[in-house]
């Protein structure tokens, strides 16, 4: 099918394209913000796992931990506090 | 040459009775085979589902408390006590809030996200991120957000960073914010599944009527209102049923994040039941609450099943 180029309103088409582009930027911005809200708690959880109690109290909750060491101690504490190895009480 | 028999002659030769007997025997054998195949499922449902439900109804009519009263029949005493209990009304009201919120919020958000993001760049990554909380157990999500909502937790720090002033709100310790905070956590976890289900429903909608409507000059809103939405109705109904059930049985987040005692805004029907049965040891009273929850949920799902049947009839 041949398109008669003279009948097409290029200004109109360009405007529509631009409007669509702007809309998608807005959507992408909103999506990025939402992704942050969905990701940050996970990040917070993973970061907190590697902090000792004083380290957790002093630092910003989202700050990176000093090292990976405290994880083992935290895991042992969690295991014991939950009485996981104690058998039926 | 032998003459071919007519149908009547065959029938008289064999005899109608014999024929009927054969037919009956065959039907009985088919029924027996079907029962043999169905037996495992029937037995499983009876033992695991039907028996506990009936047993629970029986318990709710006894005086069973911790250590005593299992044999004593109480009649409807547990039910009258429940209606007289001032916390029962609170629990009903709190559960009603949960049902309305869990029915509308994830659905609205999931539908909006699915429609806006369908085919957008980065759709796959975004879908994965929003679905991510679903992989965690609700109790883990509850503990995680308990610390996010803490007075000097992540949320208050973020609000302080945005506003520039120190924010010190105890989100989970005020009656005015606790319900909203926990519902936000619920939405955070559940919207991913809703969005994926709606995206699946959208993918099943044929393109032709949408293209035809677009060619005929329908606006995006008209296309959505008159084509996409009606074709999406069955999916939306399934999502609504799942959400309503989650709202009625709301327990895990409330139990982990709230103060587990009556008189709190976090006292849903399920929390009330757990508290009465397992904290206070009134097994029979807890069973009575469970029966009430069951009846309410059954009637609501029944209404929704009737709606489903009507929609099926409409779309056929």
The tally of strands of chain A reads: 0
The average pLDDT value of chain B, as a whole number, equals 85
Percentage of residues assigned to helices of chain B: over 70%
Helix- and strand-based class of chain B?
Answer: mainly alpha
Overall pLDDT of chain A:
77
Radius of gyration of chain B: 28 Å
- Ends distance of chain A: 81 Å
Instruction: Tally the helices of chain B.
Output: 13
Low-confidence stretches of chain A: none
Largest sheet of chain A: none
What is the percent of helical residues of chain A?
A: 55-70%
Tell me about the largest β-sheet of chain B.
Answer: none
Assess the beta-strand content of chain A as a share of residues: under 5%
How much of the sequence lies in strands of chain B comes to: under 5%
Q: Given the C-alpha coordinates, what overall shape of chain A results?
A: rod-shaped
Instruction: Extract low-pLDDT stretches of chain B.
Output: none
* Total strand segments of chain B: 0
Description:
- The complex is a heterodimer of chains A (89) and B (316).
- Chain A contains three helices and no strands.
- With 89 residues, chain A is mostly helical.
- The relative contact order of chain A is 0.07.
- In chain B, α4 (86-117) packs across α8.
- Chain B contains 13 helices and no strands.
- Chain B has helices at 7-14, 16-59, 77-84, 86-117, 123-131, 138-148, 154-163, 175-203, 208-215, 220-248, 252-257, 269-279, 283-315.
- Chain B is 75% helix and 0% strand.
Short description:
The complex is a heterodimer of chains A (89) and B (316). In chain A, 65% of the residues lie in helices and 0% in strands. Chain A has 89 residues and is mostly helical.
List the helices and strands and how they pair.
The complex is a heterodimer of chains A (89) and B (316).
Chain A: H1 10-49, H2 53-58, H3 70-81
Chain B: H1 7-14, H2 16-59, H3 77-84, H4 86-117, H5 123-131, H6 138-148, H7 154-163, H8 175-203, H9 208-215, H10 220-248, H11 252-257, H12 269-279, H13 283-315
Helix pairs in contact in B: 2-13, 3-13, 4-8, 4-10, 4-12, 5-8, 8-10, 9-10, 10-13, 12-13
